[in-house]
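Write out a record, focusing on structure:
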Amino acid sequence: MPFLGGRSNLAEIGYDNWKIFQDDILSKFKKYALPYLGSRPESQHDWLIIAQHHGVPTTLLDWTTNPLKALFFAIEDPSLDDEDGAVWAFEPRTYLEDFTLLPSLLGYDYLRDFLCYFPAHITPRVIAQESCFTFFPLRPSAKPVPPLENIKYYKDEVVKLVKFRIPGESKEMCRHELAKLGISHRSIFPGLDGVAISIRREIEAQW
């Protein structure tokens, strides 16, 4: 879920509400990330997408339109092979394309929870991961974001939400099959980070 899954107590880390929290961490990301970007993002939601893709907690939750790539994210970490994984799939009632979601609207209450958004291809990762996002409006309090399992809360935006369980004992086999199809860290994370972790995982698999 966005914002650390709603599990953090904001008061304990010094924030009164989610908007103050996001404004602060996004400001820090802009300050330190800009030297590493090829061009400056044009809008607030472009910044959010880039931050989300690099692990910063945001009001977005990232998804992929490719089910095999969704499976990759559910099983890619061998250290979690003793646990079952899961792939979530949902059918939105409506969705927005890039530039429909104006930056000035971000965070306003009339944007509904679980609003589906397809961004422009602003980074190689968005392209490689076939990304889309669901948007969760900023709350005026520190109240947690309801979990995905609470489908009744999201019924206005979601036609269907399904959870597929991936048995832990099947994860290694799934990784091998996905690699045969060209789905690996190298293809999912374009750049040196993806190359490096692909090599590391290949070595670990031989030990």
